[in-house]
Amino acid sequence: MEQTRAGSCIHNGLLQEQVLKWTHNEGSSKHAFPRLLKEDIPRIDHRVKETVKRQLSKMPIQGQIGTSPCSGGNNGRFMHPKSVVTRTRCKGISAHKCSSSRAFPRLLKEVIPPAELHVQEIVKRQSQANNLAKQDSCRRPECSPVFLEEAYRRCRNICKDYAGTYYLGSLLMTEERQKAIWAIYAWGTRIDEMVDGPNAVYMSTSLLDSWEERLQDIFDGHPYDMVDAALTDTVSKFCLDIKPFKDMIEGMRMDTRKCRYENFQELYLYCYYVAGTTGLMTVPILGIKPESSVSVQSIYNAAVYFGIANQLTNILRDVQEDALRGRIYLPQDELAQFGLSDKDVFARKVTDNWREIMKEQIARARFYYNLAEQGISHLDKASHWPLWSSLLLYQQILDSIEDNDYDNLTKRAYVGRTKKFLLLSQAYRKA
Ligand SMILES: CC(C)=CCC/C(C)=C/CC/C(C)=C/CC/C(C)=C/COP(=O)(O)OP(=O)(O)O
To answer: Which Pfam families does this chain map to (predicted)?
Structure first.
């Protein structure tokens, strides 16, 4: 099987009758869930489900195999996406399901963002759409190879400049996959820079609306500039669905509206929007192992958890930097439970209470990394090393905060070069 045939990988995975009994209820004690969450964690399963369904419905049905990688070979042994989705419904890893059976952390009290119905409606609409028409949308636009090469080179540079760790992971991937990863990253970063960068004051909802229109153009095969062109090529090559991209823009909207998060429910949704979506975009690129015995939904869930864990980590690493921009991502109710407030964050004083809340936050991020880990082995073999590497590198940031005695108010957690290389070889052994 060709590694680029992400779609066929997914379908092959689904051909397996067995269904996942993913083990997050049996996680090692090292990763037992921290004290913070009491009852439940927010549900975004419906969002992930929608993406999986949409993604699958873009794949060809039997006898309609085209020439693009996304509609790849497999000797015509595709199943109809609809039947696939039905059979795999609700199987697999889901963090909120494990809440009752684990010692869930203390902090989380409320339940579920109310977006479920909205998303369910989209799922319904999508499942009614015509598969042939969707196959058309996977056709690759004509584009000169030289132009595309330059477009991807620009994306690579953006990724290298803005996301060192992510870039390092991408270097371990096959060429086609790394290019796709760079294109997605470059697209997201350009928008993120408008929200977070030096020109953030000029950011407005209407500007984000116009980027959303431009996103549609990218998916329709009408890129506006080179970075867009790379993404157009990527979405057609890997048959990516637009929904997670739109959700990411929604996350940016949220960032322009909000600079405080009342509770973990709110923060979780934000993390899904700005980082979990990257996981959803990336699974078709990484490819699912043909012999995977778990549901596709579970694998997408794990990918979302990876993004969430990464975002929680970045929030802990960047507390001070964010505070300087007037932003505090730590849930307000959790700060209060530890006798802390915004004032303490701005005062940059590392107290025992601060250390205690940091321990809980770190434990929570590790919990999500642990969930993400369980998805890696179900991806195409060539994606294991890059993913283990990113996972270990990101987790090392948490270790580094601990090594700094939880001082992320005056110090920035950092992973040195030597450590990075050691982690790459550790990741290689795990892969
Ligand atoms: C586990 C399974 C099944 C799939 C994984 C699917 C993937 C690759 C998900 C990626 C999720 C993720 C880590 C999203 C965040 C991406 C990102 C660009 C983060 C920022 O990059 P850093 O390298 O942390 O940047 P810094 O330079 O700020 O450190």
So the answer is: SQS_PSY
| Distance in angstroms between the alpha carbons of the first and the last residue of the chain | 19
Q: Which segments in the chain show pLDDT lower than 70? A: 1-43, 59-142
Q: State residue 141's pLDDT score.
A: 60
How confident is the model over 186-216, as pLDDT tens digits? 999 998 888 777 777 777 888 899 999 999 9
Supply the pLDDT for residue 137.
Answer: 53
Sorted by sequence, the CB contacts under 8 Å of residue 89 that are 6+ apart come out as 297
Question: pTM of the predicted model, to two decimals?
Answer: 0.77
354 lines ligand 1 (CB under 6 A): no
Determine the distance from the C-alpha atom of residue 323 to the mean position of all C-alpha atoms in its chain, rounded to a whole number.
Answer: 24
Q: Which atom of ligand 1 is nearest to the CA of 390?
A: 13
251 HSE (CA, 13 A, CB side) = 25
Three-class DSSP labels, 4-30? CCHHHHHHHHHHCCCCCCCHHHHCCHH
Pocket flag, ligand 1, residue 306 (CB < 6 Å): yes
**Ligand 1 center from residue 310 Cα (angstroms):** 6
Q: What is the rounded CA–CA span in Å between residue 81 and residue 57?
A: 5
Residue-range domains of the chain with CATH = 6-133+145-430 (1.10.600.10)
Half-sphere exposure of 39 (CA within 13 A, CB side): 10
Instruction: Establish whether residue 376 lines the binding site of ligand 1, counting it when its CB lies within 6 angstroms of any ligand atom.
Output: yes
What confidence tens digit (pLDDT) does each residue in 3-62 have?
333 333 332 222 222 223 232 333 333 444 455 554 345 667 777 777 777 777 775 433
- Atom 20 (ligand 1) nearest CA: 163
- HSE-CB at 401 with a 13 A cutoff on CA atoms is 29
Decide: 85 in ligand 1 pocket, CB within 6 A.
Answer: no
Say whether 340 sits in a helix, a strand or coil: coil
Reported ipTM: 0.94
Task: Supply the angle between the helices 296-317 and 81-88 in degrees, to the nearest 10.
Answer: 70
> Is 303 touching ligand 1 by the criterion CB < 6 Å?
yes
One-letter amino acid of 324: L
Of 326, 200, 217, 321, which Cα lies nearest the Cα of 252? 200
Could you give the CA distance from residue 411 to residue 417 in angstroms, rounded to a whole number?
18
Predicted confidence at residue 57, as pLDDT, reads 74
Exposed, middle or buried, 124 (CB in 10 Å: 0-12/13-18/19+)? exposed
